[in-house]
Amino acid sequence: MNYTQTLDFLFTALTSFQEKGASAYKPGLERISAFCRHLGNPQRNFFTIHVAGTNGKGSVSHILASVLQQAGYRTGLYTSPHLQDFRERIKVDGEMIPKQKVVNFVDKHREKMEELELSFFEMSTALAFDYFAQSDVEVAVIETGLGGRLDATNIVVPLLSVITNIGMDHTALLGDTPEAIAREKAGIIKKSIPVLIGEHDPVCDPVFEQTATALRSRVIYAEDLFRCRDREQREASQLFHLVRTRDRRSFDVELDLCGDYQQRNILTVSAAADFLHEETPLTISRRAFIDGTRQAASSTSLNGRWQRLGEHPLTVCDTAHNPHGMACVVRQLRASKYEKLYCVVGFVKDKDVDAILSLLPREATYIFTQANSERALPAAELAERAAGTGLRGEVVPSVAAAVARARELAAEGDMIFIGGSNYVVAEAL
To answer: What is the mean pLDDT of residues 205-234?
Structure first.
């Protein structure tokens, strides 16, 4: 098979959550464990940092990988979903896995994958582990796909577990309360291995502490270790003035990612890097940390996080796709300067669309669209549901045409926001 044929097999023969949604979710670690045994357990050949959370885990994973690269380590990065190319999920030192490596892996192990009835995500996870081992990766940042306890990535034994935050998402699969979702995320905590929590939450903190106590693991709260004294927004980056609590030492950290919500993520990464340097075999100098954050997006090719796509009118896209994440985006929209706001939005059917719509600015003009995915909510239905919450606009079925329509309507002093789902952002990019 060539690369295109290989991807066709992966997306059709193996069940893909990105393509099919909840019906593709196959919880449990038995299949991935059996397949990795077949591969010789490649995930044991390098150090790992395991990252879970409702929002922010992608940014945290990319920033931390960039820092580790700057520290001189050959670094693997496994994230999901991808926006434009499947290979975005698997990178070594910022470079995507070669197409031929994907083809060779599937050719070699296809029979075993079919025998075990692996899901698309289980196959992708095993491919990442195998490629990292072959590439002599020293440390890998591994992002969970969904949840944590039963996620395919949860066969790793990391140096540090990280849980960024808890919000209401994937409730049909993970539970319909914050406590239930926190219990699923807490499933990545391993015996005697510390867990770093990115954000304090009075409802979820007891869940993490109870799980950690049972496993004799230490709970570390990023917000207790670092605080942000001030933040300066620049054109294509932002500067954080951080203070380390234990010695009141201050330092400036530049991050080439925009978005107010990155303030929470930079505290989480700061605490993770500090722990890794102080209490594990890894060495991360201050210079490596500063250089790694300054070029986090550029060195790992991270897209879709309050990303500027144009000026005059200011055009921004963001992959926030649940109420917790969209609330952060809306706060930033309200803080932005513009004469009129145009929002190009589309969602997938299995999200809490009504809750997200209730958060969006009423004064904006909306262009309702749908991505080219069977999971996409039809644009006409979206417009009808949006009207029920007081949002007004027009329907343009394709993302490309919707973005073009927004640009046609917007004047130089206006702003265009594109988002609602990863699929919409991917097509806009």
So the answer is: 96
Amino acid at 243: V
pTM for the predicted model, two decimal places: 0.92
Say yes or no: 287 and 385 in one domain.
no
Same domain, 64 and 211: yes
Residue 93, sorted as left (phi over 0), alpha (psi -120 to 50) or beta, turns out to be: left
**pLDDT for position 19:** 47
Provide the CA 394 distance to its chain's centre, in angstroms.
Answer: 30
Sequence letter at residue 280? T
Torsions phi, psi of 295, nearest 5?
Answer: -125, 35
- Name the residue among 73, 70, 51 with its Cα closest to residue 61: 51
Residues 108 and 152 in one domain: yes
**What's the pLDDT at 106?**
96
The pLDDT score that the predictor gives to residue 23 is: 45
Question: Angle CA(424)–CA(185)–CA(137) in degrees, nearest 5?
Answer: 80
C-alpha dihedral sign at 10, 12, 15, 20:
positive
pLDDT at 44 over 90: yes
Structure tokens at 107: 């050719």
